Design the sequence.
């Protein structure tokens, strides 16, 4: 829902005869999105940049769209698509639609409206990633945090380290269901992105005003890399087949440090954004003799990135040893890390698991596929508040992010079911929330758009019989148990006061 929307009398028309005047990059995208020729000319659809508006703000007055930048224009055009019937969102079919005459003024609440996609646990082909970007952009999200590596798979090429994709990108089988059931499918899985694949994803996202923030998790969650190069760890291992946290981490010797610098250099060469994700979460210290070597490692990597004009983006565990100056913290372990990070002067992206982890089960219905985590309903996600009320340094909260961990999502179809329509609720929460009941009424119309876009969303009525995964049992958690666990997990955080 825009900040302001007033319907006027009359109808307008978009069809094969409509001409357009506006910036080339927006016009080029809009031609494809609407399947209309949109020849250049005056007197039809007018797109213009108005510097008086905030960069991502826009206005619509009949067939004139103004944006504070080309990003604002893009969001105005996405709203135009939502003013059309769902058939306008299909890839083929009749064209030509009536448009209601309206006056709309709109701007986002937060500058970081992100979604993280884990392609390490289950590899997602390039075409599916591009589709994921399209759907996120349709909902006016502007950051794709791409989780490229983990214990279960390495998904990018690094010059001079070929075994990362020859060995680390593949595992002999995958766990099925929550880990305490110890079930495996006996089927090899893997894949990786060539450097040109990643450049394509970055360029495609940029055309839709989505910044891709890459993440290679280090020094933990590195078993796939150690499988490829045992000298980086403390012994030979295989790419992890089960979920959970591996104790096989980097040994932080000279060769493993050089390796990490080479990885970061590759990320800097491929991804033009300022932020480079180094993870930093869930790193056991057993193989280091119990010593906590991570703070110095994080500082070394931050220094290397700074020499390339980049900054660290890391999970909130990097706060525990003192996050390097200039770091951006992804606060995931409940609301407390957002408070701590901001009070310590760090910019922070709020993504607490209790309201932003879209792998968590959507209801108590036994038909939900592989129910894990606490219950996270559509209403829960809509109620997401990135900025804690008691925080004074509110300006340091860049915004919010929903996280899509894919241990239990082995296909784009499975991702669709877990992500939509909850990501619709999240998108409105970080753009500018209204009343949930009003959102739910509008969502009943919006799912028709999701149908037209081919999204396998979870029906508002609940799971269908074929959505269940009896072969992949889950592990539902209570909210109280998880809150207790989070208090223990964040006990090492500095006070931030």
Sequence:
């Amino acid at each position: 829902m825009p900040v302001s929307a007033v319907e006027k009398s009359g109808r307008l028309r978009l069809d094969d005869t409509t001409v357009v005047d506006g910036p080339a990059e927006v016009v080029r995208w809009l031609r494809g999105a609407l399947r209309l020729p949109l020849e250049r000319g005056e007197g039809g659809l007018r797109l213009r940049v108005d510097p008086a508006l905030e960069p991502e703000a826009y206005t619509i007055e009949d067939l004139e769209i103004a944006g504070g930048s080309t990003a604002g224009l893009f969001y105005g055009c996405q709203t135009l698509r939502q003013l059309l019937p769902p058939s306008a969102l299909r890839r083929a079919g009749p064209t030509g639609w009536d448009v209601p005459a309206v006056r709309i003024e709109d701007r986002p609440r937060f500058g970081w409206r992100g979604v993280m996609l884990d392609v390490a646990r289950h590899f997602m082909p390039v075409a599916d990633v591009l589709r994921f970007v399209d759907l996120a952009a349709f909902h006016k999200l502007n950051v794709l945090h791409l989780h490229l590596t983990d214990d279960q798979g390495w998904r990018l090429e690094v010059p001079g380290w070929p075994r990362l994709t020859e060995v680390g990108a593949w595992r002999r089988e995958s766990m099925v269901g929550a880990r305490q059931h110890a079930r495996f499918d006996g089927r090899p899985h893997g894949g990786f992105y060539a450097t040109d694949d990643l450049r394509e994803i970055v360029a495609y996202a940029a055309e839709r005003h989505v910044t891709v923030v890459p993440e290679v998790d280090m020094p933990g969650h590195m078993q796939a890399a150690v499988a490829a190069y045992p000298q980086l760890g403390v012994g030979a291992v295989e790419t992890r087949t089960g979920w959970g946290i591996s104790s096989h981490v980097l040994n932080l010797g000279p060769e493993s440090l050089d390796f990490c610098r080479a990885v970061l250099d590759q990320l800097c060469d491929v991804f033009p954004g300022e932020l480079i994700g180094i993870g930093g979460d869930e790193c056991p210290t057993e193989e280091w003799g119990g010593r906590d070597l991570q703070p110095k490692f994080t500082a070394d990597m931050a220094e290397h990135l700074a020499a390339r004009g980049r900054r660290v983006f890391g999970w909130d565990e990097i706060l525990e040893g003192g996050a390097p100056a200039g770091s951006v913290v992804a606060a995931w372990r409940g609301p407390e890390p957002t408070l701590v990070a901001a009070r310590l002067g760090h910019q922070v992206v709020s993504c607490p698991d209790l309201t932003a982890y879209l792998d968590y089960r959507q209801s108590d219905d036994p038909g939900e596929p592989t129910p894990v985590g606490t219950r996270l309903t559509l209403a829960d996600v809509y109620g997401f508040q990135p900025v804690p009320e008691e925080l004074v340094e509110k300006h340091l909260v860049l915004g919010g992010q929903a996280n899509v961990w894919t241990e239990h999502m082995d296909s784009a179809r499975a991702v669709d079911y877990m992500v939509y329509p909850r990501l619709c609720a999240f998108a409105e929460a970080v753009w500018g929330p209204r009343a949930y009941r009003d959102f739910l009424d509008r969502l009943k119309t919006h799912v028709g758009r999701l149908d037209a876009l081919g999204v396998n969303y979870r029906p508002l009525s609940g799971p269908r019989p074929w959505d269940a995964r009896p072969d992949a049992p889950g592990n539902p958690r209570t909210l109280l148990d998880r809150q207790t666990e989070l208090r223990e997990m964040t006990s090492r955080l500095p006070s931030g006061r």
